[in-house]
Each structure stands twice: as structure tokens, then as C-alpha cells.
UniProtKB/TrEMBL annotation:
Listed name of the protein: Bifunctional protein FolD
Assigned keywords, A-Z: Amino-acid biosynthesis, Histidine biosynthesis, Hydrolase, Methionine biosynthesis, Multifunctional enzyme, NADP, One-carbon metabolism, Oxidoreductase, Plasmid, Purine biosynthesis
Subunit structure: Homodimer.
A Pfam family reported for this protein in Swiss-Prot or TrEMBL: THF_DHG_CYH_C
Length: 290
């Protein structure tokens, strides 16, 4: 049996982070200021706590200022809107994100809409989504941006390739489609209700699995030689404990050309791209003030 090449997102993200840290040092030496990232976490979701902790450590390691706001699950919409208003006005904060998912009583769309689009380092604000869709400078959502970097590093020019994206979320599926269209791919967005999903996936040169269901994409959904990007991070029972699996049945994907592992694939790229977006927001502010 052939063995698909493993796309090492962890190593790629480490290289990006080192480059970003060097740029932050150079900017601090030149301008005497450094980028600041504010992260708002509401509630006790265990996975979100892990991700927010990882964001804090990565931000500090890159020489940026980290402003963490960990709030109780019962925090009201009004209190959060007030906090976002303060962060928008704070000159030391260049990037703001609200960690998702939020407790059910909160309106995530309204909170994201309250973030200054120039500080929206998640790229979830409709202004940034619209800018991306119309080919203008935008803050690009971190996970799809990370997927694009891995694809371009592995394949080079993506022109003319058929990309099938399984998943239509605002966070991954839709912005991923915009990025791949801009890179001259032919793009199909599929989802759990698409007819003949397995056959559709078999037509993909690039298969992006972002559906949030453990190992839903089986080996016989993958065209031999295809490049597979697995965005899923699913914790499943394993013996007495748990383990992480993606949306792709990794063990059945040996005939792919290349595949991202879970963990160690797309996940670390999400955080590296968050640092990149924060640096971009900072640079744009410096340029606007010059
Ligand atoms: N406001 C946001 N909320 C969420 C986002 C986001 O981009 N913005 N994405 C995800 C969670 N996420 C970042 O927030 C994220 C997920 C996974 C990883 C990661 O590095 N995963 C590791 C495994 C970690 C583990 O052991 O659990 C890996 O894949 O190697 C980083 C960030 C939802 N919410």
C-alpha cells in the first residue's frame, strides 16, 4: 500500500510564528510599540479554554501583548457589548476576538458586528466577509487562511484544480471557497445534505473536510493522489480515555497524495494565522497614523 505524504502543519506554523516574532521585534525597535491581542472567553467550555490558553502563550511568545478576558457563563450581552466597545477604543489593542462557541443565551452575530472591522482578527465581521468575497483587502478567517498556506506550500500554483469543500460554515467553508476561487480553483461547496457526496468528493484534486463529524470522509471518497486537508478536530472515546480524530478516516487515506494529520495539521495553523492577522492589523494602524 502507498503512503500519503503527511503535511506537517505544526512545523509550518512554528516557522510562521518565528518569522512573525522577528517582525514584531523589528517593529518594536523601530516604532517603540508592539501589537496587542484581546481574547474574550465566556464560560467554561473545556476545548475553548485549551485554545484560549494556547493563543495567550503564542501571543506572548511572539512578543505581542495579550489581553485575556475570561468571563462567567452567565455574562450578559450588554456587558459583552460594553467590553467590546472598550477594546475598540483601546489604542493598545490591535486585534479582538470572541472565542466561539458562546453560551446559548448570547447572540454571537451581534457581538461580532460590534467589533471594529479593522481589529477583527478572526475575519468574521460582515465587512471582512464582504471584502474577501469581492476581492478587496480583508481580515481573512484564520483556519481557512492556514489551509490555503499549507496547500500553496505543498502544491504551488493551485490554478485549475478542482477543490471540493465539505462544510458550509461562515468560519471555514464559505471563506475557504472564496480563497480557493481567488487562487483560480474550480470550487464545489458540499455539505451533509449534498446528494452523492462520496462520488462528488472523488472528483476532488483538493478535498477540504470541515464538517465536524468524526471520520465521516471515508477512504473510498478520496481520489488517488488527491491533497486532503482535514479541518475537523473531534474528541472521541478511546478505551478509558479519549483521543482526537479528524473528519477524515486517516487510516484509510494512504492512497491520497498528501493529507494533514489531526492533531498537528490545520489546528496549529489557526493560531499562527491569528498572530499574522494581529500583526497585519497593527501594521495597518501604524501606516494609517504615519
Ligand atoms: N473566535 C474563534 N473561535 C473559534 C475558532 C476561531 O478561529 N476563532 N476556531 C476553533 C478553535 N480554535 C481556535 O480558536 C482552535 C482549534 C484547534 C487548535 C489546535 O491547535 N488544535 C490542535 C489539537 C489541540 C487539542 O489537543 O485539543 C491540533 O489540531 O493539533 C487551535 C485553535 C473554534 N472556535
Amino acid at each position: 500500500m502507498t503512503q500519503a505524504q503527511r503535511i506537517d502543519g505544526k512545523a509550518f506554523a512554528a516557522g510562521m510564528t518565528a518569522r512573525i516574532a522577528a517582525e514584531v521585534t523589528a517593529l518594536r525597535d523601530a516604532a517603540g510599540v508592539e501589537p496587542g491581542l484581546a481574547v474574550v472567553l465566556v464560560g467554561q467550555d473545556p476545548a475553548s479554554q485549551v485554545y484560549v490558553g494556547a493563543k495567550h502563550r503564542a501571543t506572548v511568545a511572539a512578543g505581542m501583548r495579550s489581553f485575556e478576558h475570561r468571563l462567567p457563563a452567565e455574562t450578559s450581552q450588554t456587558v459583552l457589548l460594553d467590553l467590546i466597545g472598550q477594546l475598540n477604543a483601546d489604542p493598545n489593542v490591535h486585534g479582538i476576538l470572541v472565542q466561539l462557541p458562546l453560551p446559548a443565551h448570547l447572540d454571537a452575530s451581534a457581538l461580532i458586528a460590534a467589533i471594529d472591522p479593522s481589529k477583527d482578527v478572526d475575519g468574521f465581521h460582515v465587512i471582512n466577509a464582504g471584502r474577501l468575497a469581492t476581492g478587496q483587502d480583508a481580515m481573512v478567517p484564520c483556519t481557512p487562511l492556514g489551509c490555503l498556506f499549507l496547500l500553496q506550500d505543498h502544491l504551488g500554483d493551485l490554478s485549475g484544480l478542482h477543490a471540493v469543500i465539505v462544510g458550509r460554515s461562515n468560519i471555514v467553508g464559505k471563506p475557504m471557497a472564496q480563497l480557493l476561487l481567488a487562487a483560480n480553483c474550480t470550487v464545489t461547496i458540499a455539505h451533509s445534505k449534498s446528494r452523492n457526496l462520496a462520488a462528488l468528493c472523488r472528483t476532488a484534486d483538493i478535498l477540504i473536510a470541515a464538517v465536524g463529524r468524526p471520520e465521516m470522509v471515508r477512504g473510498d471518497w478520496i481520489k488517488p493522489g488527491a491533497t486532503v486537508i482535514d479541518v475537523g478536530i473531534n474528541r472521541i472515546p478511546d478505551g478509558d480515555g479519549t483521543r482526537l480524530v479528524g473528519d477524515v478516516a486517516f487510516a484509510e487515506a494512504g492512497h491520497a497524495g498528501a493529507i494533514t494529520p489531526v492533531p498537528g495539521g490545520v489546528g496549529p495553523m489557526t493560531i499562527a494565522c491569528l498572530l499574522q492577522n494581529t500583526l497585519t492589523a497593527f501594521r495597518r494602524k501604524l501606516a494609517a497614523e504615519a
